[in-house]
């Protein structure tokens, strides 16, 4: 059953019980009040009759010492007649509770008569036929006789009023229930609307529409729930986008990898075929085997780089203090034999926290790229300076070909080369910068590339101070 109908049903049940109970109590209260009033009146009337009887008995001639039964009958008839307008009904009995006078229509039941106490009065409500009566009984003392006087007051009207009250209240309750149920239905529809909107949003998301958001209708708990749901949907959507992007970049990676493998392999196979199918002169033989060798070497270095990237992606580092001087010295030694470009190193001494071999690899890659981008005789600068916050900045500057602005973001992707033929001719595989990014990520750092086509490139990164060493 829907929540809407559950709330509605519960409300209707509560209202029905509340209306019914309050109506029953109210009608009963009115009835009890009217009945008590009638009983009080009946008892008053009974007292008055007692007094009237005793007065009438005193007026009976004094030659009789005792009130005769006939006199009782006469007084009874007189009292009954005196009350004819009010339909008075009475019964008079003697000492042995023997009935001496009884009005027409007085019930034959003598149970109350038998219970009339000596010194008090009594009453009961009785049903006789279709009518209800207040039956009172009192003892009367007249001329040395103890008599019993009973009266009967018709109170059927009060009972009829109660029955009518119940029936009116039933109808009113029903009408009120119908009206309040209609109002409640509208309220319930309004109250449960956020839940319906949320359900719709959940379904839409389950169908794959991750951009769908539930409309927030209020600031209450349901509004908060909608807000949280939308927030969750945003996070999920972003995660899905990231995953899609990740899948796309992996596909690109595999495509580029396959392509990078294919090119040297095609050359290797071609030259190998040439070597085995023909007898070549010495020079051609050397060129062909040299080509096979260099392309094979390129494949080897590519597979090493790939392995490095995969390994660094998985690992976290144990950073050690490293004197920057050793790094700069190492690079100067490495490139001292480079006849085509000149490496100029300038640095502030200092200590950084890094994995020394990986950091050497980063700097080697950057300097190698700078050399490859520079003209023959060009200068490559390797700079190092301390930062105020304890970090250390490395910069590799060249004045070579530069990188177009729209390629800046792509050069760090694996296998990406701005000028493929140029890079390949220099044994490049487009993996150097991708590896640098991964290594720097482990050092809590990243590459900043500034470049102008034809003017040169400056690639820098900051190794943070000791505080930020936790990765
Ligand atoms: P590998 O480093 O794997 O041997 P690579 O040097 O071609 O090959 P990356 O180091 O990743 O690969 O560089 C990617 C591309 O970015 C290069 O092919 C080159 O086109 C461009 N690039 C990198 N550094 C520079 C630079 N200093 N000046 C101009 N272009 C650069
Ligand atoms: Mg490189």
Indicate the topology.
Blueprint: H1 3-58, H2 69-82, E1 89-93, E2 99-102, H3 111-115, E3 122-128, E4 131-142, E5 145-154, H4 156-206, H5 221-277, H6 282-314, E6 320-323, H7 324-335, E7 342-347, E8 351-354, H8 356-373, E9 379-386, E10 392-398, H9 420-425, H10 432-442, E11 448-452, E12 456-463
Parallel strand pairs: 7-9
Antiparallel strand pairs: 1-2, 1-5, 3-4, 4-5, 6-8, 9-10, 10-12, 11-12
Helix pairs in contact: 1-2, 1-4, 4-5, 5-6, 6-10, 8-10
The chain binds adenosine-5'-triphosphate (ATP) and magnesium ion.
Overview of this structure, please?
This protein has 471 residues and is α+β, with helices and mostly antiparallel strands. It folds into three domains: 3-163, PAS domain (Beta-Lactamase, 2-Layer Sandwich); 216-314, Signal transduction histidine kinase, dimerisation/phosphotransfer (DHp) domain (Helix Hairpins, Orthogonal Bundle), CATH 1.10.287; 316-463, Histidine kinase-like ATPase, C-terminal domain (Heat Shock Protein 90, 2-Layer Sandwich), CATH 3.30.565.10. It is 56% helix and 17% strand. It has helices at residues 3-58, 69-82, 111-115, 156-206, 221-277, 282-314, 324-335, 356-373, 420-425, 432-442; strands spanning 89-93, 99-102, 122-128, 131-142, 145-154, 320-323, 342-347, 351-354, 379-386, 392-398, 448-452, 456-463. The strands form three sheets. Strands 2-1-5-4-3 form a five-stranded antiparallel β-sheet. Strands 7-9-10-12-11 form a five-stranded mixed β-sheet, covered by helices on one side. Strands 6-8 form a two-stranded antiparallel sheet. The longest helix is centred in the middle third of the chain and has 57 residues, at 221-277. The structure holds adenosine-5'-triphosphate and magnesium ion. The site of magnesium ion (MG) has 5 residues, from helix 8.
